[in-house]
Specification:
118 residues, mainly alpha, Cytochrome Bc1 Complex, Chain D, domain 2, 6 helices, 0% strand, iron ion binding, Cyt_c_BACSU-c550-type
Length: 118
Amino acid sequence: MQKWIMSGLFFAACAFAVVLMFTLPGKAEVAEENKPTMPEVQLDAAGAEATVKANCITCHGDQLQGGVGPSLQQEGGKHDAGEIFTIVTKGRGQMPSFKDKLAPEEIANVAMWLAEKK
């Protein structure tokens, strides 16, 4: 009787493993989820500056000189617009994600604006 129970549990575990193999996302799918796609937008410097003033100056300073967060005055020399978009969307280190606070188009506009600061 005990052999039948152990055999049944083994079979159930194997079946569960096979189901997981075919339903869990692969490396490519996970990588795609982790890298948000930046939408195509026309740069609106005034809009980007207003978004930054409303959301970023608390940590990055009113002149983007840094404070709690790093200086963004020469951010374009370190990251391109796509990288900045990913950082702002997902967050990084102590920086929170802004994907639930700002629209992707707003984040893209800010990313393009910051990418020009070299």
